[in-house]
Amino acid sequence: MILKTRPHLTQNEPLLFESSSPGKKGYQLPPLDVPAVDPKTVLGAEHVRDEIEGFPEVSEVETIRHFTRLSTWNYAIDLGLYPLGSCTMKYNPRVNELVARTEALAWAHPYQPESLSQGAMEIMAELERCLAEITGMDAVTLQPAAGAHGEMTGIMLIRSLLEKRGDARKKILIPDSAHGTNPATAHMCGYAVQNIPSNARGLVDVELLEKAMDETVAGLMITNPNTLGVFEENIVEITKIVHAKGGLVYMDGANMNALVGIARPGDFGVDVMHLNLHKTFSTPHGGGGPGSGAVAVKKHLEPFLPYPRMKREGDQWAFNYDLPESIGKVRAFYGNFGVLVRALAYIMAHGGDGLRRATMDAVLNANYIRKMLEPYYDLPYKAPSMHECVFSDDRQAKKGVRTGDIAKRLIDYGFHPYTVSFPLIVHGALMIEPTETEGKREIDLFVEALISIAEEVDEDPQLVLGAPYLTRTSRVDEVTAARKPIVRWRPQAAVGKAAD
Ligand SMILES: *Cc1c(COP(=O)(O)O)cnc(C)c1O
Q: Residue ranges per domain, the chain?
């Protein structure tokens, strides 16, 4: 049993406004030794405020402590394992940051003339080349800003090709193990979605796919490895079935952390895919910051890629807008450049062998966790894991403890929760992805925590149901928080006025 209080780390920090007391200042200066000037006479009275309503008056140390304490409220990859499945929350080497913040790159402006952007363009061209090699595809666009945006771009490419052939078709087939963004994407691009159930091993049911595939189907959107962390071992046959009826295969490549350096989607029949550079290729993510959903295609889709494309003119790079079949721009300028720089830095720092090692370590770590936890948690799909493993809360549910409760208890043990209740085909899912950046010590701590929680569930389920105990706030009323969020602070005075 762990301590129920960690007073200093967990005290409830008031709003800075609530610490205010009149006359307190964050600085002290010696008395003026020059004549005082009234700011109103210098700046004009209309530019000077007598008072800022509700402005906090606090000392320097109060200010520093306030923000430092707030910074400890958040879990971060710099604190420990971040096992969110499907998110690939790997540690991002600091050298990537160093490179991305190089002045010439950080201050590059998208309106700079091409002649002054040659270095930035070289970086993008080199990254496109690396990603094409890693995926086994022919061409890459770096424009899409996130994975879901890459999906949309990819399906628009499929639609353009089919339209050119004379029929955009009606449906996209999507396995039930897909990420939720896949059906959303197909729908956004004007397609109906038809679900393909998985078989008992968590793989696409090939017979059902064969039945569903006809000339009204534009293509298949498949995640590989899928969201169960299982490699679709029939992928070659699957792509052949889709191609035989004139459809195209889109691969959601968000799980490429399990394949880089080992297997190439281009080699197993994929026509178009996206990569989450912010997941697989190391950019801090998860807070809604910039990402990159680079899209890689085979030759037959290249003419439709978003413009501008880069082309070589003599010994210079130039942007080519003269692409009559292009779907046009999907984003202002050329993509989230800083993320692209980090991705290339990561790829170059690892090299081909290093990338392959990272993949092998990611898969090893996931399988280690799976083996260690299998005696304690139900594992509904038994096929070998790739980069993540998915348990269900079936055993704990018998004691009334669900995946969300276990996740909250995990916070008391000092870990960020795993992904809760996803993928949907696993009832009460615990989806765990350690990534390659975790060492054995950290993984063992995590495994011990989950084993300890499983034991707590057996001995005292109420204890787990009350967690977390060590956070400032314990269980919140999630429904009220979602329905009536208080997202803005207002000075007490203003609150009073509003009430009037
Ligand atoms: C993360 C993820 C996405 C969506 O990527 P975003 O960058 O969040 O838009 C799509 N599919 C899978 C399998 C993912 O894990």
A: 94-349, 360-481
Q: Which two tokens stand for residue 146?
A: 């996130």
From atom 5 of ligand 1, which residue's Cα is the shortest distance away?
A: 147
Distances (CA, A) of 267 to 40, 132, 236, 263, 479: 73, 12, 9, 8, 47
Interhelix angle 337-373/118-135, rounded to 10 degrees, is 30
Q: Is the CB of 224 under 6 A from ligand 1?
A: no
The count of residues in the chain is 500
Q: Is the CB of 159 under 6 A from ligand 1?
A: no
Ligand 1 centre distance from Cα of residue 215 (Å) = 29
The residue nearest atom 8 of ligand 1, judged by CA position, is 147
CA 304/CA 139 separation, integer angstroms: 11
Decide: 179 in ligand 1 pocket, CB within 6 A: yes
DSSP structure class, residue 38: -
The H or E element spanning position 75 is none
Give the 3-state secondary structure of 435-451.
CCCCCHHHHHHHHHHHH
- CATH number listed for the domain at residues 360-481: 3.90.1150.10
Cα 254 to averaged position of ligand 1 atoms, centre (Å): 6
Judge whether 168 and 161 are in contact, CB under 8 Å: no
Which segments in the chain show pLDDT lower than 70?
A: 1-11, 489-500
pLDDT digits (tens, 9 = 90+) for 310-335: 999 999 999 999 999 999 999 999 99
What residue's CA is closest to ligand 1, atom 2?
254
CATH of domain 94-349: 3.40.640.10
Distance separating alpha carbons of residues 166 and 163, to the nearest angstrom? 5
